[in-house]
Amino acid sequence: MRIVLWILVFSFPLSLFSWNFGGLEFYPAFLLIPFGFLQLFERLKENANYRMSHFSFGILLLAILILFHAAAQSFLASDILKLIVAILLYNSLIFLSKRLGLKILNILDYSICLLVLYGIFQIVASLSGYRELASSFNTWVRGAGEAIPIDTRGVGILDFMRVSSFTSEPSYFAFTVCVYFFLTESRITRFFCLIGIFISLSFITLYSWTGMAVYQLTKKLRVPTPFFFIGAVIAHLIFAATIYYEVPQKFFPTFYDRYAGIVEFLRFDWLQILFGSNNIDRSFPINLIRPYSNLGSILFLFGLLGLSIYIFLFRALEKEATKPKAVIMIFLLMFNYYYLTSWPIIAGFLFLILQRKPVEDTLVSYEY
Predict the structure, then answer these.
(1) Rounded distance between C-alpha atoms, residue 164 and residue 14, angstroms
(2) How many C-alpha atoms does 225 have within 13 Å on its Cβ side?
C-alpha cells in the first residue's frame, strides 16, 4: 500500500498521464482524494477553534465569485470542481506526510529529476535522427495529436527544438521546473531544473524570469509586493493596448491566444470592467471562455473585482509562504495558463510552499 501511495505522489508533476472525461482531465493522483477527506474529517473531530487564514479567505472569495457567475455561465461549474479537487489533493498530502510519514519533498525531487532526464533523452534522440523514438511514448500514452512531445514551432531567438518530457507540451514542462527550482532544497535537483528550463524554453519562461528579476529589484528597494503585482498587470494592459497591434504576423497567433481576453476587456463598458462579461457561453472562441492567460481569464470573466481577489490571493499566499519566490514565479508563469487547472502539481506546489516543520494545515488554520 505504501509503495502505491509513493507512486501516486511521484506522478504529481507528470501531467502527460491523464485522460479526458466529459471535458475534464483526470490524473492518477486523483486516487489520493479520499485521503484529503480523511484529513478534513480528522480536523473536524479535533474540535479545534477555527481560524481562517488570509489565503483561505481568498480561496473562499474566489469560490463565491465563480459560483455567482456560474449561475449565468454554466461552463464555470467545472471550475468549482477543480477548486475542490485542488483543496482535497492538498489535504491528502498533509495526511500522507503527517499520518503516514511520506516525505513529499523527497518524492517530488525524484520525480522532477526523472522528468528532466526523459526530456534530455528526447533532445538527444531527436538530434540523433530518432525523432519518432523521442515522440513514441507520448503518442502511445495520449494518442496522436493529443500532446506535443517535441516542438519546433519556435520563432526568433526561440527558433530551436523544445521538448515536453512527461507533460503535454513544453510550456507545461517549463512551468513545472521553473517553480520547482525555488522549492527544492537539493542542489542536484536545482541543477536538473536549470537543464529543464533550458530544454523547454519559451516566451513565458523569458517573461517570467524577467519578472523575477524585477521582483528582486523591488525587494531591494523595499517596494511592497502588491505594487509589484499591480505593476505586472498594468504592463500587460499597456502591451495589449499598444504593442499588441504591432506584433509581427509570425508571432501573432501565440500572442493572440494569450491577449485576446485582455483586448476584449479593454473594450468593455464600465460595468463589465468592474464585474466582467455577463453574456458569454460555450459558443464563444476558446481563447475567450478559456483564455491561455490567467490575467485574460480573470479580467474577461470577473473584471476588476475578480482581479482584486486574485491579487489578494497571491499576496496572502506570499505572506504565508515559507518559499515566497515560488509564489512569485507561479504568479508570473500563470499568465500563460487558464486560471484554474486540474494539474496535481499545483496542489504539490501549495503543500511545499505552505509547509512548516512540523507540517501545519495552512489552507485551513486552527487555534488550540
Answers:
(1) 10
(2) 15
State the Cα–Cα distance between residues 300 and 133, nearest whole angstrom.
42
Return d(Cα 27, Cα 17) in angstroms, integer: 6
pLDDT in tens, 71-102: 777 777 888 888 899 999 999 999 999 989 99
Instruction: Tell how many helices (H) and how many strands (E) occur in the chain.
Output: 16, 6
Residues lower than pLDDT 50 in the chain: 157, 357-368
CA angle 302, 306, 308 (to 5 degrees): 150
* Cell reading at 118: 526523459
40-58 per-position pLDDT tens digit: 888 877 765 556 788 888 8
The grid cell for 133 is 523514438
Q: What is the dihedral of CA 55, 58, 60, 63, to 10 degrees?
A: -130
Task: Provide the residue ranges of all domains of the chain, joining segments of one domain with +.
Answer: 1-102+344-368, 115-201, 210-337
Q: How many CA atoms lie within 13 A of 273 on its CB side?
A: 7
The pLDDT, as a whole number, for residue 22 is 62
Query: Taking CA 258 as the corner, what is the angle to CA 255 and CA 262, rounded to the nearest 5 degrees?
Result: 110
Length of the chain: 368
Residue 366 main-chain phi, psi, to 5 deg:
-135, 150
The pLDDT of residue 253: 73
Number of other residues whose CB lies within 10 A of the CB of residue 274: 13
